Amino acid sequence: MENTVNAVKKFGMKDKLGYMFGDFGNDFTFILSSMFLLKFYTDVMGVSAALVGVMMMVARFVDAITDVTMGQIVDRSKPNKKGKFSPWIRRMCGPVALASFLMYASWFQDMPMGFKVFWMFFTYLLWGSICYTGVNIPYGSMASAITPEPGERTQLSSWRTIGATLASTVIGVVLPLLIYYTDADGNSVLSGTKMMLAALVCSIAAIVCYLLCYHMTTERVKVEQVTQKFSFGKLISELVHNRSLIGIVVAALLLLLAQLSLGNMGAYIYPNYFGNAAGLSLATMGGTVVTLLCATFTVKLANKIGKKELGIIGALISAAALIVAFVLHTHNMYIFVGVYCVVMIGMSMFNLVIWAMITDVIDDTEVKTGERSDGTIYSVYSFARKLGQACSSGLAGVLLSVIGYTAATAFEPKVVDGIYNITCIVPAAGFILLALALKFLYPLDKKTVDKNADALLEKRNNK
């Protein structure tokens, strides 16, 4: 399979903004699910938190098939004038938006429990395992086709994270102010109808963002169609022996476990423990400011000390802040939001470069094997991220059930203290494990990444 660099306009701001809009679109459905799906089904639909968590874990077994399948479909698709990857974004943007909206069908809240559980499973699998997979894998794989330069890919990673941050800001800041109401006892309660309308608006916004991504990005590296016969056994063998891929997969799983556990519990700790749903908006806004500030120096810092090295530092900062929060066990919401912003400093430093790290893995695999399989490798990485999402939601769901959380006990003192402890302990453990995984499992330090880039540049210049 050949990879050549097309003679087209230079990489620039239009590409970075276009790629940013891609993850803006992704996270209009992904962050919405991470922040509010568990809350919606426990508080509006009356489904137990543990069952929602089990559903998310079951879906990941389906993803093990659909993610790799989509990776193969992308690798084996024939490029057109627009490229190999971006056409899939246009094809799948409508289906993923519709599937996301259907997950929040509050008009079914009075249906029998069996039907509600069926609808929950059906729509979640349709969205996450089929439609989201269909758009996210080609989108993620496209980064290595937009530019072959490691520094420019790090810029794409940073802009992708900015896109995700903007979506998180819209969802995390605006929605809590709109979708909650105060009940007769003065408690902040989630409105099913308002949640459904919010999901509709997010779905429409996702389509707009995907189309902007499609029209604004240019695939400069021509990635040819894979024609070799697919061997599942060979794929498994390659994955097992690919240390850089194993390292980034474990890192992604642990990052999402930590990040989304914090996100999932945000929908509980502010309205239930602190008694102020608007606290989630304040925390999200603070996190956005922190991420945008970090974006001003993270790329330069990563180019200087290395992406792996920066990720370790960031993970340890986040873990330390959460441990401090657990020890303080504060009832002052503003102190907790301040600690959350420190967590975001560490998390942003890693998030801003992680998407460039997967392109480093793709390059490392090509150097070692002589073959380039962007879609397949990214599909394995995407599966790990979704597994991390499921683990965070599943663990949160199980732990909420363990502390006795239901719609009826949601504001009892013992339950709300349990919510605080889960919010601190689970993500702190995730960040500590992430730092260890990057240090001892992921092999692509700055020296190795630069060496691989030089080798591939020489290879392409000799063709």
From TrEMBL:
InterPro entries: MFS_2 (IPR039672), MFS_trans_sf (IPR036259), Na/Gal_symport (IPR001927). One of its GO terms (biological process) is sodium ion transport. The chain crosses the membrane at residues 44-62, 88-107, 119-140, 161-181, 193-213, 244-262, 274-298, 310-328, 334-358, 387-407, 419-442. Keywords: Membrane, Transmembrane, Transmembrane helix. GO terms for cellular component: plasma membrane. GO terms for molecular function: symporter activity. PANTHER family: MAJOR FACILITATOR SUPERFAMILY (MFS) PROFILE DOMAIN-CONTAINING PROTEIN (PTHR11328:SF24), MAJOR FACILITATOR SUPERFAMILY DOMAIN-CONTAINING PROTEIN (PTHR11328). NCBIfam families: gph. This is Glycoside/pentoside/hexuronide:cation symporter, GPH family. It comes from Hespellia stercorisuis DSM 15480.
